[in-house]
Amino acid sequence: MRTIRSPKKMSQAVRELVAAGKTLALVPTMGALHEGHLALVDRARKSADVTLASIFVNPTQFGPGEDYLNYPRDNRRDLALLRERGVDIVFLPQVKDIYPEGFETYVSVEKMTQTLEGASRPGHFRGVTTVVAKLLNITRPDVVIFGQKDYQQALTLRRMCLDLAYPVKFIIAPTVRERDGLAMSSRNQYFSPEQRAEAVCLIIGLRAARKAFKAGETSVRAIGELIRSEAKTVCPTVKFEYVAVTDFETFAPLKALKKGAMISLAARVHGVRLIDNLRL
Ligand code: AMP
């Protein structure tokens, strides 16, 4: 496994691989890797000749007061995991290489970033689309893979790739969960064991919603209330930011539940902001 830090060297390595007729798959990450990230790596290995992963904690996608400085970082551990999983090249740029002095060019997807995560975290998606556009420009992959866990992010980036004609196959891979159902997340590290046990409240709420839908419930409001009350039985202090029902493909808000619809939510569990979703 090669580790490359400079964007120029990364682009050079890509040119050589392309000249040798190789196809490339990219998995962008912010490190603090877990099985969710590694499942994307597995998918990448099946999708192209060469597997590339990037690790970059992107400052522009964190708002003021968010956890940019405290975000878990452990490159040694991450590199060992990626090597073990068969990654060929890790791109590990520094902030000054991605955002050179005087940086002032951003990429924004306009409409679909206004709601849910975009409304809760102003500027977040502009940071995400900008860094991913840049990673795609540097690595020019044939395939890029994101997780459904960050569903609005995945749809936003897919929109960007379409709109800006990135010649890349865009894959959205399923959410990997812990044994009890909690969606794997780098932020789960922030919990004490007692808090961690209660973090399962979100998927418990979502699964109750799916059960109610199967039993005939179609009201968006009722399902939102059910999710909140079920979650509170496990974690009485959970604070929801939103529960939303959207069309899975178009992200349009739905007035009634239907098969294939997406339920997304964000909540603070013991002060840690988590998101999760479930498709009906
Ligand atoms: P992050 O390092 O949190 O920016 O995530 C990097 C990529 O991993 C994104 O495409 C995420 O959607 C994806 N990801 C994070 N957690 C999971 C998970 N539990 N299952 C599947 N993909 C995930």
Can you give a write-up of this model?
This protein is α/β, with parallel strands linked by helices and 280 residues long. It has two domains: 2-173, HUPs (Rossmann fold); 186-279, Pantoate-beta-alanine ligase, C-terminal domain (Pantoate--beta-alanine Ligase, Chain: A,domain 2, 2-Layer Sandwich), CATH 3.30.1300. It contains ten helices and nine strands. The protein has helices at 7-19, 35-47, 75-84, 95-98, 117-120, 124-139, 151-163, 193-198, 201-214, 220-234; strands spanning 2-4, 24-29, 50-55, 89-91, 143-147, 169-173, 239-246, 262-269, 272-279. The strands form two sheets. It has a six-stranded parallel sheet, with helices on both faces. A three-stranded antiparallel sheet has the order 7-8-9, with helices on one face. Helix 6 packs across helix 7 (151-163) and helix 9 (201-214) packs antiparallel against helix 10 (220-234). It starts with a strand and ends with a strand.
Task: Detail the topology: elements first, then pairings.
Layout: E1 2-4, H1 7-19, E2 24-29, H2 35-47, E3 50-55, H3 75-84, E4 89-91, H4 95-98, H5 117-120, H6 124-139, E5 143-147, H7 151-163, E6 169-173, H8 193-198, H9 201-214, H10 220-234, E7 239-246, E8 262-269, E9 272-279
Parallel strand pairs: 1-4, 2-3, 2-5, 3-4, 5-6
Antiparallel strand pairs: 7-8, 8-9
